[in-house]
User: Fold this.
Amino acid sequence: MNDKDYSCDFLIIGGGIAGLSAALEASKHGKVILLTKGKIGESATEKAQGGIAAAIDQPRDSTEYHFEDTIAAGAGLCNEKAVRVLVTEGVDRAKELIEMGARFDRAETEAGGGFALALEGAHKRRRILHAGDETGKEIEKTLGRRIVNENKVTIHQGMMGIDLLMEDKKCAGALALDSLSGAVKSYRARATLIATGGVCQLYLYTTNPAFATGDGIAMAYRAGAAVTDMEFVQFHPTALVQFKQFEDIVALPRFLISEAVRGEGGVLLNNKGERFMEKYHVKLELAPRDIVSRAIVQEMKATDSDHVFLSLKGIDAEKIKHRFPMIYKTCLERGLDITKDNIPVAPAAHYFMGGIKTDIDGRTNLPGLYAAGECASTGVHGANRLASNSLLEGLVFGRRAAVAAKQPTTNNQQLTTNESATILCKPRFKDFEIQRYKLIIKTAMWNGAGIIRSQESLSSASRKLELIEKDLVYPAGSLDELELKNMLLTAKLITRAALDRQESRGAHYRTDFPKQDDNWKRNLIYKNS
Ligand code: SIN
Assistant:
């Protein structure tokens, strides 16, 4: 073994909420190495504003109500067993976070255990624990602090997973690229957990950080893991729209205006200043996300605009500043005083319901390989995730995967390096060429496989992806080239699944099959043959 070879019991790839929860649990049972693509703390978790849903306010709320809301949002495709686990264990995990010192906003009354619980779309009760509008950051800090204090997890930052090491169809670890030195390192592990987050950087407009390029999903698929529900991408209704022409060129993430703002009374207005959600759903601005996003797209089209407005005029100015300090400050820095000005917003790709197919313990079809969080698909969200169930998912299923992975599956001593794993060669493309290819993917996906799709739009996206695939047949030679290949592969899988599903359900809406059709009440599963 040299300084490029590491060995551990548990290799965890990804440092968001699922990876950190798994690391804390796994470190009770063996040696853990955790790889993060950027610096620790740089993840979609850190950007999560709204909060974490848990039925802690009992008996006013109940896990049964939370179960019903999750199932209803999932449009007939939720795995009920997974939902049951999420809502029941979720209460315990949320309480543990509080015991670990997570500072969620408090209320003046004793209701809700003394916590100021928020309401978000499609929840029938106030059940969202939040830390101002920076809940993800608070949770990440809490878990990170515990990991640092316990000092049992080895963290390697700036490491991007390249490919899984496979031995006799079993996962034996992974190869990773050190983004600073360019060295390829080998990590041997008894159990490998992918917790690399989502894919929404595949879209031109997204709330997701630059890291969300589908790396873990692509890596698992290449190795033979099954992926599922790839057609279900959630578009958040309200991302800030500014400098659109500039955004089109550089494809920066759009700043999220949390759903909790609508939960506190924010209303949507079209470009003519008319409130419009009553035309679309009885729950108005708090309808399920897919419905609000499509309603916004329709209103933008009808008024020939690239945005609608979110008005906070019905909310007390002091409450806005107190409840949404980060949103208030960020908008102010960008020239908008949200206590007075309407906020220009439009939908943006936000969350991926599909991913590496796992059971409720994070097991994939490959022995030794586990997945949890946004990159995994337990079926817990069905065709459309309920607001604020994503942090909860990472917390619950990250830990469960680590518990399951402590059972021995392979013997580390007998493993050898898989020669067929990706070998990095010299980078082939210049930076601007890579950015150009990425932009082609993002534009094709936004226009063809976005909020509203059809056979025609999806086929057009597919053709664009095929065209650039011909240029990208070479082995990747840098982190950016790896990302590009991963983006291309996951984009192809999403497009293929969206073409295959000939109905509309949850976040997947096709104009040529506008109705839900229960012949399609099943999950589409894909495997690299
Ligand atoms: C939000 O704050 O609106 C995002 C929360 C989520 O995606 O569940």
In short: The chain is about 35% helix and 15% strand.
